[in-house]
Design goal:
heterodimer; A: alpha/beta; Rossmann fold; five-stranded parallel sheet; four-stranded parallel sheet; 12 helices; 9 strands; globular; B: alpha/beta; three-stranded antiparallel sheet
């Protein structure tokens, strides 16, 4: 394991395997009556969130607390940042208190990486701008493996706003390392520039036609619907929400097409969902939907990450 | 020249038949102490303890004519030396019947040494419920306790030096079965 978890690209297949295997054991803690293990007793984890979050922040907090770490939440709005304090000053102030880990979300891509260079604490990237969200990719892989078994040779289609999606970036890296076949589906306007050489280098497929992917030769085993990020949608990337739904939403007919081609297929969504926009209520609540399993897996995976970053010998993380 | 840790250097102290005999005796001792197999649960400490627990449960089942539940109790997250070594992935825990409340739990491990593993196991067990009694069965007791812990059932007491290495091999995890001592001053 690296010293910080900033990007899936810092991990190799063996490290991902270890994190997922540990998460499986952590689920045992999640299921039992006494949800407390002493593993991180005396460690302090700060959740430093400059962007809104429900599931990521609360699951990191729960993960830390179940492992007996002291977890504290700091949000951008309520901190000295709103008084004009700079990011380095804020994080170095927190670091000076002697904390062990900083779980950080920030709207700037690369923020977590920069912070890692300023502090003594371990840094976990909980989402940096449009760059990466590594724990999301890990929990997605964990959830898919629970339903599908090994992901080697499985076909995962990721649909939606590839340009702004840190979930997509982390997922495509993790899924390729686990041997899955990945197809990224989006309208031209929502594909980042330079994706074609990237897809060739990392070995994933691109498509602008969701229906063609769903009825293609290689049935889809997991369909991951990305959120249409209204907060990053100022650029006129598609004419109307209705038009997006018609082209790229998981509508009821598309749900039927997916399941007709592969009755075992699962539907993922990192949340929060825009019901009726990128995913219909039928699909979100279908038996094939693993969206709430993803939330449950989030706690187990984050316990696993905190364990491997914080529990071991000081300086053992190479 | 034999190197330490190779089979050529190691002294075999228990053969496969010795191990089988020891397990049979321990199984009978457990039954005698418990006055039968009622409410018994055997929990092995990964990895080899789990195999030994299953083996003991099979013998008890044979003797009593009814199956004896065996499971696994991982202690990784309860170790007191986590900070002194790199992290490793924990092993699965499985509690037969999902509860230890009011049961007589026999913890099973291969080697009893410092006693720290057993302390961790007792802590872990407390988070799963409140057993009526907890006992400890080990294949080998090599001494050098660092905590006030002792085993109720011992396959063999092996006086060792700190510098020696006790190796337990059991089928199901290793390719043959033996207990050997290697290294130490000659």
């Amino acid at each position: 394991m690296p010293r910080h978890l900033l990007s899936i690209a810092d991990l190799d297949a063996a490290a991902i395997r270890m994190l997922l295997d540990t998460a499986a054991s952590m689920q045992d803690v999640q299921r039992r009556e006494v949800k407390k293990i002493p593993t991180l007793r005396g460690r302090t984890v700060i959740n430093l969130f400059f962007e809104d979050s429900t599931r990521t922040r609360s699951s990191f907090e729960i993960a830390g607390k179940w492992m007996s770490a002291d977890t504290i939440n700091i949000t951008g709005k309520g901190s000295s940042t709103s008084k004009g304090e700079s990011l380095p000053d804020t994080v170095m102030t927190i670091d000076a208190m002697g904390v062990d880990a900083l779980v950080m979300r920030h709207s700037a891509s690369g923020a977590a990486h920069q912070v890692a260079g300023w502090v003594k604490a371990r840094v976990v990237n909980a989402g940096d701008g449009t760059h990466e969200h590594p724990t999301q990719a890990l929990l997605d892989a964990f959830t898919m493996e629970q339903r599908l078994g090994t992901l080697a040779g499985r076909h995962v289609a990721i649909v939606g706003d590839l340009t702004h999606s840190r979930v997509f970036r982390s997922n495509v890296l993790a899924l390729r390392m686990l041997g899955a076949h990945v197809t990224a589906v989006a309208p031209v306007t929502l594909m980042p520039s330079g994706i074609t050489p990237w897809a060739q280098a990392d070995g994933f497929a691109l498509s602008h036609d969701l229906d063609a992917v769903l009825t293609g030769e290689r049935p889809v085993d997991a369909l991951m619907m990305l959120r249409v990020q209204r907060e990053r949608m100022a650029g006129g990337f598609f004419p109307t929400p209705r038009e997006y739904t018609v082209g790229y939403g998981l509508t009821r007919p598309r749900l039927q097409t997916l399941l007709a081609a592969n009755p075992e297929a699962v539907i993922c969504h990192p949340g929060p969902m825009n019901r009726g926009l990128e995913i219909s209520a039928d699909a979100a609540d279908a038996a094939a939907s693993v969206i709430l399993d993803q939330v449950a897996a989030g706690v187990a995976v984050r316990m696993s990450v905190l364990y491997h970053l914080l529990a071991g010998e000081e300086g053992s993380a190479a | 020249m034999p190197r330490p840790d190779t089979p050529g250097d190691a002294r075999v102290v228990l053969s496969d038949t010795d191990i089988a005999r020891a397990l049979k005796r321990i199984a009978h001792e457990i039954l005698e102490a418990n006055k039968g197999a009622s409410d018994l649960i055997l929990l092995g400490i990964p990895t080899r303890g789990v195999i030994l627990a299953r083996r003991l449960a099979a013998i008890i089942g044979e003797v009593e004519g009814q199956p004896c539940p065996a499971g696994a109790l991982d202690i990784t997250m309860y170790r007191d030396d986590l900070r002194h070594q790199p992290t490793r992935a924990p092993m699965p825990t499985s509690i037969p019947g999902d509860t230890v409340d009011d049961k007589v739990v026999v913890l099973v491990d291969d080697v009893l040494y410092s006693g720290r593993t057993v302390r961790a196991a007792l802590d872990a067990l407390a988070d799963y419920g409140r057993p009526r009694a907890v006992r400890l069965a080990v294949l080998v007791d090599r001494g050098h306790r660092e905590l006030p812990i002792r085993a109720d059932h011992v396959g063999k007491n092996l006086p060792t030096a700190h510098s020696e290495k006790v190796r337990v091999r059991v089928l199901g995890h290793d390719d043959h079965e033996s207990v050997s001592i290697a290294g130490g001053e000659r």
